[in-house]
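Discussion board: Methods & Data

I've been asked by a reviewer to show the raw model output for two of the constructs in my manuscript, not just the figures. I'm not sure how much to include, so I'm pasting the format here to get opinions. Each protein appears as its amino acid sequence followed by a line of C-alpha cells. Is this the kind of thing reviewers expect to see in a supplement, or should I convert it first? Here is construct A:
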Amino acid sequence: MFLANRLTQLRRRTLLMLLRAFQLALAALFLAGASYAQAQPPLNETLPVDQVRPGMQGYAYTIFAGDQVEKFDLEVIGVMPNFLGPKQSIILVQLKGPKVEHTGVVAGMSGSPVYIDGKLAGALSLKLGIFTKEPIAGVTPIADVLAGGFATGPVADSGSTSPEGMVSAALTGRAGIQGGAELRSIETPLIFSGFQPAAIQKFSEQLSGLGFLAAQGGTTAPRPDDAKLAPGDMAGMVLVQGDVSINSACTVTAIQGDKVFLCGHPFLNLGNVQLPMARSRVLTTLSSDLASTKIVNAGGSIGTITGDHLTAVSGTIGPAPTMIPMELTTKSPLGTKTVRVQMVNHPKLTPLLVGITAFNSITQNIVYGETTTLKMNAEIKLKGHAPVRIENTFAPSDALNPDSMPVAMSVMSTFMRLFNNAFEKVDVEDISVNVESVPGRQSFTIESAWLEKGEAAPGETLRLRVLLQPYRGTPRIEETSVRVPDQVLRGSTLRLMVSDADWMNRASRGFAAAGGPGGPEGLDPLIALINKERRNDRLYVGLFVPSPTMLWDDKELPNVPLSQINAVDGRPAPGSVQVLRESLASEVSVPMSGPVTGIISLNLPIR
C-alpha cells in the first residue's frame, strides 16, 4: 500500500514538473516575441541621416533560417554624402556578431531594417568589395526608403531608361573600382524553381546584364499567415508561377498600414509597376567567400509590388494583379507533356521570361530528346487585336547549343517585336506553344534549279525543277510550275527566285521584314505582317516583274503609277511607305518535312 502511494506521488510530481516546464517554454516564446516587437520602434521613431555619427552602435534584423527573425549588431563607420546622387547619402556600417562575421553580407539581406540608438535609421542595401575579411555594408537612409516607396506616377510601359535608371545601372554595374573595393547593391536572389542549371546558364548573359543573382529554390504552399509581414521578414516579386516559378527575394524594411517597404535598393529600377508580391521562406543561409546567399522557397501571393525605385521596392498587401497564362505542350513518339505557368505582363521582362520558360519546359520534358526535328506552332492572344501566330520547324545542328534553343528564341523574338512597338501598350491574354518532336535531322539545302524552257510567252505555264540536298541523304528533285502573267510586256526579262522563307520575306517586303525602315505604322499592321511571314519548312518560288511595288504598313501595292512613285522615291519616305524596284507577280511553295535554306536566281526572257 505504501509503495502504491509513493508511485502515485511520483507521477503527480513528474506531471507538475512537465507542466511547469511547458509553461516556462510558452513564457519564453512570448517574451521573445514581445522583445522582438518592442525592439522595433514605431515607424515615426526614425533617425535622420544628419544625426548619424561614427562610432554609434546599432543593430539590424534579418532571417538566416526558417521563419525566425534574428538580431545582429553593427557599428557606424561614417556617412558618405551624395553617394547615390545629389543629396542621397549612404551610411557605412560594420556588421558584428558570430553569424554575420561568418557569412559576410548575404544576398537576400538587402532591406534588413537598421536601428541606431533605438531608432529606425534605414535599410541595409549595399556591400563593400568581394573576398573581404570584414562585413562592411551600406545603409540607405530611412527617409530615402520611404520617399522611394511613395513615388507616384503612371505605371511604366515602355523600354526607355530614366536618369534614375542610369544611376542604378552605374551602381550595380560590374565595372567598379579596380581591386573590388566598390560599394554595390546587395544581390537580390532570383529564385528559379523547376529550372535546371543548364536552362539558367543559357540565358546567363541576359540575366547578368539585368543584375540578377540566379539561384535555385523551391515553392511552398500558401499559408494563412503569409501576409502577416514584420520588418526582417522576406518577400519579393513574382515573375513566373505555376508548374515552374521565378521569384525575387529580399528583406522587409518597414510597414505602414498595408504599405510594405523592402530591399533598400531597386530590383530593376522599373519605376511604377503592377507585379505580384509573394512571401519568401528561408531554408538556410549558404556561407561563401565569394557570395553568401539565402536559400529560399517562394510562398503564397500576398499583394502587389507597386514601385521599383532607386532607394526602395514597395508594395501593398491585398489582391495580386492579373498575370499572363502560358501553356507549352511537347509531343513526341514517347507521349505528350504539358507545362502550365503564369507570368508578368511587362515589356522588359515578359520576352525574357517567355524565352527561358519555353526553353526549360522543352528540354526538361521527359518526352524530349536531342537530335530531333522540332515543329513549333504558337499562338499569342492579344486584347483588342487579332491573335499572333508563329509556325516554324527547327532541325538539330552540330553546334553545342541545345536543339530547342531556336524554338525559345523564336518565341522570345516575336514578343520583343510586339512589346517594342511604338504605338500602343500590348495586353497579352494568353500564350500557347505546341512543339512536336520528330526523330532525325530533317533539313534541306537548295543546290540548283532549272526551267524546262529558256524563255516564255505571256500567260504561259512552265515546269520548274529544284535540286535539294537533304542532310546526309540522297539528293532529291522537287517539281512545281510557274505561270507567267498575261499582262507582261514582250521583250522584258523576269526574275525567278527559288529560295527559303527568309530570302523570300526580304525580297518581297524589303527592310520591313527585318524590322528596319519602312516598318508598319501601328500594332495591327505589325501583327498582320508577322502573320504573313513565310514558314521555314517550305520551298518558295517567286516570279518578279520589273515594275515598282509600294509597301505601305502591311499592304503591298504593285504596279503603282509613276506619279505616286516619284513622290516618295529618292526622298525620306513618309511614315512607313517604301518602294521596291520589283513586284512579286506570283508565288508558289512546296511543303517540306524540315527547314529549307539557300537561294537560286534565274532570268526568264519574255518573247
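Construct B, same format:
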Amino acid sequence: MPTVAVNRDRLFEALNQEYTDLAFDDLCFDFGIELDDIDIEDNQVVYKLDIPANRYDLLCLQGIALALNTFRQLQPYPSYKKLPGNIKITVKKSAEKIRPFVCAAVLRNVSFDENTYADFIELQDKLHMNICRRRKYASIGTHDLDTVSPDFVYEALAPKDIVFQALKQTEVMNAEKLMETYETDMFFKQYIGLIKDSEVYPVIKDSNGVVCSLPPIVNGNHSKMSKNTKNVLIEVTALDLTKARVVLDTMVSMFSIYCENKFSVEEVSIVYEVEPESRNSKFPDMEYRNTTVSQKYINNRIGVEQSSKTIAGSLSKMALSACTDKTDSDKIHVTIPPTRHDILQACDIMEDAAVAFGFNNLPKTLPKTVAIGKQQQFNKLMNLMRKGVSQAGYTECLSFALCSRDDVSSKLRKPLGEDVVHIGNPKTLEFQVCRTSLLPGILKTAANNKSLPLPLKLFEIQDCVVRSDNEVGAKNLRKVCAIRASTTDGFGDIVGLLDRIMQLLEVRTYKMNPADDPTFLPGRSTEILVGEAGIKIGSLGVLHPEVCENFSLSCPCSALELDLEYFH
C-alpha cells in the first residue's frame, strides 16, 4: 500500500477541525485508511497514511481532505465539468514505434502557493511510482502554458535530432548526450532504460519547434513550472491508454480546486495521423459512470438490514451519488464520479456501503455453522513435535517447496522418480519441480551457514508433494527431516533424535533394518519400520561424501527423514 506523508496542521486546516492523534486514527479507521506513523520533519508534525493501492484520489493532501470532509458530511462531493478548448496535439505516425498514446488537459487561472505547488509535484511522483509503475506504462509532463506556443506535436525522432535544455541542466545538448549524463544521476538513471536502447525517442514540441518534454524521462527547461504558473498544460504519454486516462483524471480533479473556475478543466484535442476516425479524441475523460446495485445483495454481504433509501444516503458519504428506483424498491441507481476509478463492480459499491455503515457498527454474531473452528489435531501434533525437536538442540529452518530436478535426483545419487510433480513452465532452473524430500533444502541451508560453529544441527517439518491419481493430480505428504554436520559423522546423535521423535509420537516399538540407500554410505544407513507389518516410514544414516560435495558441504553429515502421514 502506498504511504502518503501530509502535514498535520495543513490537513486539520483543510478538515476545519483539529483532532488528537488517537481521534484522527479512529477517523482513518472508520474511513478505511490507516495512520501508519507520526513523524517530526522541520519542526512540523507529519502524518504518514497508508492508502489502498487503487485509491489514486487519496495520494495527496487535497484528495484526503476532500474525501474525509465528504465522509463526515461537511460538504457535498464536487461536480467536475469540462470546458471546451482550442489546443491540439498532433500525434505523428513515428510515435507508434515507442510510446503510442498521449492525452492532455489544461488547468486555467490556477493559484498555487509554495505548499500547494509542492503537493502538485508530489502527486505526480506518487502516481509515477504507483499506477504508472515507475513511468513504464505512463508518464506525466507538466508545463507552464504561457511559455510555449500551441499547437503541439508528439512524435519520435532519432536521439541526435532532439536538442534542448533539459530541466535542471545548464547547457543545451542532444538526447544522446543527455542519456549519457543521466547514467550517473541517482534519480534519472532508474528511468533511462525505458527508452535508451530504442532507435527513436518520443518528444513533444510546440508550434515553434521548442522541445517541451522527452517522455518518460524529463521535461524541457523552457516550459518549467513554478508556484507562479497560472495556466498548466498536463500531458500524459503512455504504453497503456487506460492508465494514462486514470492518471490525467486524477491530476486535474485534485488540483482544479485551485482554478478560478473551481472544479473545471479545459479539454485538449488529440489528433492521430494513424486511424484518425477511431483514435481521435478529447481529454480529459472526467466521465461520470452510472450503474445499478441490489439492496438485497448489499445487505446480504454486509450482514445488516437497511432500506434502499438508507443505503443510497450512506453511499453519498463515499462520494457516490445514489438514488432509489421509483418502480423497484430493490434497485439503487449509483453515479460514480471520475475520481473513483477503483469502482469496477457491484462488490466495490458494497464495500463502500459497509464503510459508510461503519465496521464498528456491524452486529457481532456467532457464525451459522455446525461446529466451532479449531486447530487440526495433526497440525497441533506437528507444533508439539517442533518444540520437542528444538529442545533436543536442533534449529528449525524453512526452505523452498520448489527445487531443481537435480536436487531430488542426481545430487542425492538417485534417479528422478516417477512421482515427481513437474512445473509446467519453470522460470528458473532452481524451481523446476516440487520437492519430494526435505533433505535437499536443509543441506542447502547448511551450506549457506558454513561460517557458524560446528556441530550444525538443523531440522524441518513441512509438506512434500508427490503425484497422485486424485482430482488434483498431486498430494501433500508431511515429513520431518534433520541433519547433523560436524567434524565426525555423529551417527549416534541422529539415532538419539530418532528415539526422541518416536517418544514424542508415542511409538513404543520400531525397527532399524540395514538398507542399501545410495544417498548414504554403504553399511551406514538404515530404514525405519513401524507396526506389526513393518511399514517403512523413513530412513537414517551417514550421508555419502558425494552427496555432501554436491551440496557444497565439506564435513561429515548424518541425516534422518521420516514420513509422518502414517500418524495422521
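Answer (T.O., handling editor elsewhere):
This is acceptable in a supplement if you add a one-line summary per construct. For B, something like: DSSP finds 14 helices and 27 strands in the chain.
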